[in-house]
Amino acid sequence: MNWLYSTALGGVQVQVRQDEFEAAQKILGEDHSTKIAEIENDFPLPDKNEICQNCGASDLEMIQSTRKAGAFSLLTEFPFIFFSKKYRCRNCGNKQK
């Protein structure tokens, strides 16, 4: 729902049955703005590793290099144990630590 479009098209319209009209008016007339702050506290903002540094999207997936490191260890007989977590953005494909 895009609030700019809904305002341009006349706002949000709610349809209720006639016998529920008074209850609907009461619910729509209540102020729930304090609940927004409570919800924001329950869902804190993501940290820097959860946001793409390129496009700002929060749709990141962790890339694990354990398979590559394991194959490298088998081929070179060198225990490659220095792993680093990397993240890839599903939106733009950017890779970051």
Order of helices and strands: HHHEHEE
What about the largest sheet?
A: 3 strands, antiparallel
Measure the end-to-end span: 34 Å
Q: Give the overall form.
A: elongated
Mean pLDDT: 76
Number of helices: 4
Residue windows where pLDDT falls under 50 for at least 5 positions? none
Query: Could you tell me the radius of gyration in angstroms?
Result: 25 Å
Total strand segments: 3
Helix content: 25-40%
> What is the structural class?
alpha+beta
Strand content: 5-15%
Largest sheet: spatial strand order: 1-2-3
Overall tally of structural domains: 1
Report on this model:
- There is one protein chain.
- The chain has four helices and three strands; from the N terminus they run αααβαββ.
- It has one domain (3-96).
- The chain is of the alpha+beta class.
- The model has no long low-confidence stretch (mean pLDDT 76).
